[in-house]
Recover the amino acids of this structure.
C-alpha cells in the first residue's frame, strides 16, 4: 500500500487537470471505467468513477468499500466511495443535471448499451489518455524506480547469456530476479522477450528451449512494474564472434538510438521523429518494421505514439521509448531501446546503463 | 512453431464454423482485428483478417508476409497472405460487393472511423467470442497440456510455502518453474497471485516482501500458457495450525467447488450456476464477491461467464473455471478453483490434483 497522504495530494492534482479539460470540452461529467484510468484517478484499480465539477464518486464492490474506507482518510481522499449496487451508477447519473457526459473509448457494443440507459448525450473521447501522457513529479519518481529494476534485470541477463545457455532458462532466471528486485509483475503482459539467432528477426519471438549459439545475436527486451508504473528497455548482445556485417549494424542501431535521443525536443511532431528514424534505416538498405517508440506509464504502451500515423506532439514530461531496430528475415534482428523523460531543456535517459 | 499440417486442417474447421454463423446472421463479410481472434482463425497473432464466403485474406506487415509464406504450405493454408500497405484493407473491402460487414466489439472511436471509411453497413457483434467458447478436440488437447504445467507449478508452490518463507520469493521460484516446465509466458497477464494472512482477503492482492506466518491461510492462483492456451487454478493452503473457523470454511469452500462441478450439466444457464453457488455462500453467512467462473482458452477470461448478469448457456466442450471463494475483510480469504471440460455426459476436471 502506498502512502495515502502523498497519494491524496497527487490525486487532487490529477482531478484538477481532468476538470479543466472537461471544462474546455464542454463536459459536465466524465465516466471512467478503464482499469488504468480508474487507477490513475483514484489510486485503486477497481470500480467505476464519475467526475463532476463539484463531486467525484468511486463505486466499488462491497469488499473494497470496506477496505478502502480504512486505508484512506475520508477527509483527504477526493472520492466518495460507494458500493456498486445494481444500476447504482446509471441511477446516479440520470438524477444529476448532466447534458454532456464524457465516456472512454469503450467497446462499441458497450457504448450502445450505455446510450440506451443514460440520459446525457455521450461524448466518447480519450481525455485521460491525453492527460496521462505527461507525467507529474511523483510519476517520474516511480518511473525512475521502475527503470532501476529493469536495468538490474538487464545486468542479470548479460551475466547469464553465453554460448550454450538455454533461452528459456535465462528468461526464467531473469524474470525471477526482477520479481525479487521489487517488480510487482513479470515484465510486460507476456513476460520478457529473449530471442537468439534466426528468431531474433521476429519482433515478437518468445524464448524457446533452444541453446544460444556462438556467433549469434540475442535480443533482450524487458522491464518491471513499480507502484503501477512500467519500464521498458532492449539490448542486443553478440555472443562470441559475430560477422562483420552484424557488428557494423549493431553499432549503427545503437548510435541511431543515441542520436535520436540527442536530437529530440519538446514541440516536435511524434510522426516526424519516426520519419527521421525510418529514413536513416532505409538509407542503410533496410525497412523499419515497427514504430520508433511509445509512451510508458501505468500502461506499457500509452500515449504518445511515435509512429507514422501519430498526431501526437512531444511535450514536457512525456515519458517514452526510442527503439530503432533492423530485422533480416531468416537472418537476425537488432534492437536497442531506452526510455526517456523529455524535459524542456534536457532529456533524461532513465534506462541508460553505465559502462 | 506448431505443426503446420494439423493447424491448417484445424483452421479450415474454424473458418467453416464462422462462415455458417455469418450466413445465419446475414453477413457477407467479417473483419477480424482482435489479437486473439486473429490468432484463432489464422494461427498467427498479428495482422487483420477478412473472411468472405469464398475468400479469406490475412494482411500482415511485410516482415511477416515473408516469414509466413515459408512456414505454411500455400495450398493448405486457408488464407491469402498480403502485405499490409496503407489503406489496403479498406480498399479491398470497398471494391467487393459486401452489404453487411461484421466487425468485432472495437472501441467506439475506432468504430466511428471504420464507419466513415467503409462502404458496407457495419454490424458489431461477438461471433468469434461465441464460437471460441466451445472447443475443438485439438484445443482440448492444448488446454489439458496447459493444465498439466499449472498442476506441476502448484506442486512446486506447495513445496515452497511454509512458515517464514517470503511471498515474493515463492512467486519468483514458482514462475521460473512454470517457464521451465514449458509455459510460453508467466501466469496470466500480471503473473501468479499469492497472498497470505490478511492480504488473502483481497481478491487481487499481489505477493509482497512479507514472510508467511504460522497459522495463516495462503491463496495461490496460477496457470500456464501452452500453444497459446491458458490454464487457471487456485488452492488455499493452511500454514501450521489454523483456527477452527478457518478450517471448517476451508472444507466448506473446497466441497462447494466439488459439488458444483458434480452438479453442472450441459444446457444449464450460467447465471443459474452462479446463483446456486452464491446462495450456498450466503447461507453460510458470507457474501460472494466475484463470479463463479469464466471460460478459459486463448484468453484467460473468455466466454462463458458464470456470473449473475450472464446470458450464456452451458454447452458441450465449453471449458471454464469453477471458483467459489469466501473473503473476510481484514481477516482472511479462501478460494478453490478448477478448470472443467464440460462433456455431454461427464465433466473432466483438468486441474484436479491427486492426493
Amino acid at each position: 500500500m502506498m502512502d495515502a497522504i502523498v497519494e491524496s495530494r497527487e490525486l487532487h492534482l490529477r482531478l484538477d487537470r481532468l476538470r479543466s479539460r472537461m471544462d474546455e470540452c464542454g463536459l459536465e461529467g466524465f465516466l471512467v471505467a478503464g482499469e488504468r484510468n480508474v487507477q490513475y484517478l483514484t489510486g485503486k484499480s477497481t470500480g467505476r468513477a464519475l467526475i463532476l465539477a463539484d463531486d467525484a464518486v468511486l463505486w466499488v464492490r462491497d469488499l473494497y468499500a470496506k477496505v478502502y474506507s480504512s486505508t484512506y482518510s475520508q477527509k483527504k481522499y477526493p472520492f466518495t466511495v460507494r458500493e456498486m449496487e445494481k444500476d447504482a451508477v446509471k441511477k446516479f447519473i440520470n438524477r444529476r443535471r448532466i447534458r454532456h457526459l464524457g465516456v472512454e473509448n469503450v467497446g462499441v457494443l458497450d457504448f450502445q448499451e450505455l446510450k440506451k440507459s443514460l440520459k446525457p448525450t455521450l461524448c466518447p473521447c480519450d481525455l485521460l489518455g491525453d492527460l496521462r501522457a505527461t507525467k507529474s513529479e511523483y510519476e517520474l519518481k516511480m518511473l525512475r524506480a521502475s527503470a532501476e529494476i529493469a536495468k538490474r534485470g538487464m545486468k542479470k541477463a548479460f551475466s547469464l547469456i553465453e554460448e550454450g545457455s538455454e533461452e528459456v532458462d535465462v528468461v526464467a532466471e531473469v524474470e525471477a530476479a526482477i520479481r525479487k528486485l521489487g517488480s510487482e509483475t513479470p515484465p510486460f503482459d507476456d513476460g520478457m522477450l529473449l530471442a537468439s539467432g534466426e528468431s531474433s528477426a521476429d519482433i515478437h519471438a518468445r524464448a524457446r528451449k533452444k541453446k544460444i549459439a556462438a556467433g549469434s545475436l540475442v535480443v533482450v527486451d524487458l522491464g518491471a512494474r513499480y507502484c503501477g508504473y512500467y519500464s521498458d528497455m532492449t539490448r542486443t548482445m553478440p555472443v562470441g564472434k559475430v560477422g562483420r556485417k552484424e557488428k557494423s549494424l549493431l553499432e549503427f542501431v545503437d548510435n541511431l538510438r543515441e542520436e535520436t535521443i540527442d536530437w529530440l525536443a519538446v514541440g516536435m511532431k511524434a510522426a516526424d521523429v519516426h520519419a527521421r528514424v525510418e529514413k536513416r534505416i532505409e538509407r542503410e538498405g533496410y525497412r523499419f518494421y515497427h514504430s520508433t517508440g511509445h509512451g510508458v506509464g501505468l500502461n506499457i504502451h500509452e500515449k504518445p505514439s511515435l509512429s507514422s500515423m501519430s498526431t501526437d506532439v512531444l511535450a514536457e514530461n512525456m515519458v517514452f521509448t526510442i527503439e530503432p531496430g533492423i530485422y533480416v528475415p531468416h537472418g537476425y534482428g537488432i534492437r536497442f531501446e531506452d526510455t526517456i523523460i523529455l524535459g524542456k531543456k534536457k532529456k533524461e535517459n532513465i534506462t541508460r546503463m553505465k559502462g
